[in-house]
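PROTEIN FOLDING TASK:
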Amino acid sequence: MSFNYEKDSNNIVTVTMDMDGPVNSMSAAFLPMFVETLDRLEAESELNGVVLTSAKSTFFAGGDLNMLCAVTPETVDEFFQGMCDTKAAMRRLETLNAPVCAAINGAALGGGLELALSCHHRIAWNHRSVQLGFPEVTLGLLPGGGGNVKAVYLLGLMGANEYIVEGKRVAPERALASGLIDAVVDDKDSLASAAKEWVMANKDDEAARTQPWDTKGYKIPGGNIRNPQVAQMVTMGAPMIRKNTRGLLPAPEKIFDVAVQALTVDFETAMRIESRGLAELALTPQAKNMINTFFFQMNKINGGASRPKDVPPQVTEKVGVLGAGMMGQGIAYSSAMAGIQVVLKDISLEAAEKGKAYTEALLQKRVDQGRMTTEKMADVLSLIHPSASNEDLKGCDLIIEAVFENMKLKHEITKELEPMLSEGGIWGSNTSTLPITQLAEASANAENFIGIHFFSPVDKMPLVEIIMGEKTGDVALAKAFDYTKQIKKTPIVVNDSLGFFTSRTFGTYLDEGVRLLVEGVNPIRIDNLGKAVGMPVGPLTVYDEVSLELSRKAQETWKEMGVAIEDDDRSITADVVETMIGDHGRGGRYHGGGFYEYGADGSKHIWPGLFDLYGKDDVAITDHDAKDRMLFRQVIEALKCLETGVLRSVADGNIGSIMGIGAPAWTGGLIQFINTYGLQNFIDRCSELSTQYGDRFEAPAIVAEKLAAGETFA
């Protein structure tokens, strides 16, 4: 572990960061090594310049998130001082009496980009593997190593916003165009020489070794707080952020606040304000939740924690997609974009070609936006073969059926088309609710039968839920897992049950919304409180968008399977759905209207009949209770899935709930929520809700077991 120090004949020192572990990071070991290096540089009698680069595949990975998670009210002042010390060391680099060039050979995100910004010049390898940006906001934090302030100085308040508030990551060319870096090279091997050439060309130029914020008379792009456009952004920015986050995520507001203050105070003061802002955010439960889930648990999942270790990598070469409807066409698009041959089959060639047209439209949009060439578009389209012929499926190493949620239909298709698979090929069902074990009864090889549940719209949703049937084998799991990664989506792996994890858990949110309606709560209030919790949309809106008719068909399928709903949590919703459709012909938005009425001009309003059916004048349910009911039902169901083995890991539950069903990001996932809420507090709140609203709010026994063991959900 070291910062390798090498001085050449031109008196240029190359500092190559090579810390222990797979990446360079701002761990406890970083600062002593960095300070030692600075001491040597400042002691040089003859120094023409410095090149800072990395021996790793990334340039620098950023801060130590374990350290950030460990910050407490008792240690926060120490953390703040540590940030100030780190910034002081970076300040020594940027005030060095010699030009310093960052040779960015890999990703420079967060603290990595902040380290690069402490150099006077930045050259990056122009490669798809290289990303630059400040992703801190996605972890509930802010760029606390100078990035918040320096981005404003370099790009202006408006230019910095997309990087620091939105957390945008960009390729080197985009970073160059915006002013984050100064040059790119296409050949990685020429990076060091390009950096040295810049040093030699500027070794006697005082301006070249002076940072913009240290330059006399420097004006921030776009102007300062007195500029009318900037002043307008300052006035409107915070309310807009609050509207977008609903006040549930403190990081974007704090980032914007620090950015604005950078326009009103001197540089050094702004840097201290930034450090204090990071210290404040590090204490929030939102940050701890988001770091745990979006970094540690996401890395665990993407690292293959749920994949069988003894099965070699499985590459999908030809996939058959059965059904060219909304789901099938999305699966075809995602597969073709990954370079996989696709047979898109439907009952008619016309229907299959219509499904392919969906991909063409998406690709044309990319071309129009300059994100894809026409040649690349043609290449992708050539991979999709629309068909109505069974024979075209021969040789597929993976077939995914995406037909209607009907057990009999799926059985028939499996028996008819499974023989088309290549030897050892895998059959996947895109069902969202039907048990894989029962679906596999129609298979001649249940070991190679697995659930591969996509989310709509497939081209945008990043998650795939892989479901193991009772007889599903490891090879099928490895195939499904690797295929999901191949198409650049995140896989979670769950065991079989009705609705699996995502549909089953999300269903409780919808059910609780309907229960509140039946209890007389104003439907507009229900949907608004659902969004106030942090869900993307309210439960009644969801029902309208996915269609009440679809819900009724699902209930009919359950009855055919022998699943009774009369006495369980779904009975009230089932009655409401039947009343809405059977008595009033209201099947949802695409059936002419459901809970809402929809105008030709795009407007919508609550169907007045709801007030006649369910309206009450004496409803005493508080906003606090209503919000907790919609959130806690989901959390409790997720815990039941974990307790009964449907969920195979806490990480799968957290990532699946956020990326699959839109659970509030501030929770860090439905199970992580309990850790920061407090296990005893959760048990107590469940008891209150259960006493007042019913046994469905009883805390599962697993919570008390964890509490007794002194554990959290990890």
